[in-house]
């Protein structure tokens, strides 16, 4: 018998050692393919879908909220809907509008030279009549 065989066992060769590093090349390849797919399909998804919507009476747009426009010029004169008006008549007009629609908005446009007291008078008349929605109209700076 030969001296190469020891007790009936064959000599084994050392197998491959386990890899200690992660191979990221396949992962990068897959990710680049996915990016290309998303780049190609994104414009297709963004297109609007054509629809023929059904008609319904209840689907109409709401009427815009009622508003009254009050202007106070440089001299302190009040105007209601571009018509000059005194404070007593303005109070009556506010009361009438408040009776018709309590949600009426008062849009106040006052010249910057008008005294604060005059503006407060007009605001007081509107609030006394029950018009609590008041908007101040201003011009945007250039």
Characteristic terms for this protein:
3 helices, alpha/beta, 142 residues, five-stranded mixed β-sheet, 15% strand, Nucleotidyltransferase, domain 5, single chain
Your description of this structure?
The chain has a domain at 64-136: Nucleotidyltransferase, domain 5 (2-Layer Sandwich), CATH 3.30.420.270. The model has no long low-confidence stretch (mean pLDDT 81). The protein has helices spanning 25-46, 87-100, 116-129, and strands at 67-72, 78-80, 83-85, 105-110, 133-136. The protein is rod-shaped and about 125 Å long. The chain contains three helices and five strands; from the N terminus they run H-E-E-E-H-E-H-E.
Output the number of helix runs.
Answer: 3
Pattern of helices and strands: HEEEHEHE
Classify the fold: give the CATH topology of the domain at 64-136: Nucleotidyltransferase, domain 5
Largest sheet, order of strands side by side?
Answer: 3-2-1-4-5
Output the CATH class name of the domain at 64-136: Alpha Beta
The protein's oligomeric status is single chain
Beta content: 15-25%
Brief description of this entry?
It contains 3 helices and 5 strands; from the N terminus they run H-E-E-E-H-E-H-E. With 142 residues, it is an alpha/beta fold. Strands 3-2-1-4-5 form a 5-stranded mixed beta sheet, covered by helices on one side.
Layout of secondary structure:
Elements: H1 25-46, E1 67-72, E2 78-80, E3 83-85, H2 87-100, E4 105-110, H3 116-129, E5 133-136
Parallel strand pairs: 1-4, 4-5
Antiparallel strand pairs: 1-2, 2-3
Helix pairs in contact: 2-3
């Amino acid at each position: 018998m030969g001296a190469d065989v020891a007790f009936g066992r064959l000599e084994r060769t050392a197998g491959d050692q386990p890899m200690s590093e992660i191979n990221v090349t396949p992962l990068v390849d897959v990710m680049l393919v996915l990016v290309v797919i998303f780049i190609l399909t994104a414009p297709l998804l963004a297109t609007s879908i054509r629809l023929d919507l059904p008609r319904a009476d209840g689907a109409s747009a709401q009427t815009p909220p009622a508003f009254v426009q009050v202007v106070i010029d440089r001299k302190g004169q009040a105007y209601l809907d571009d018509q000059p008006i005194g404070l007593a008549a303005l109070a009556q007009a506010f009361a009438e509008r408040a009776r018709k629609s309590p949600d009426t908005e008062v849009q106040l446009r006052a010249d910057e030279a008008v005294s604060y007291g005059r503006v407060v008078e007009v605001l007081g008349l509107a609030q006394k009549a029950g018009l609590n929605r008041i908007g101040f109209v201003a011009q945007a700076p250039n």
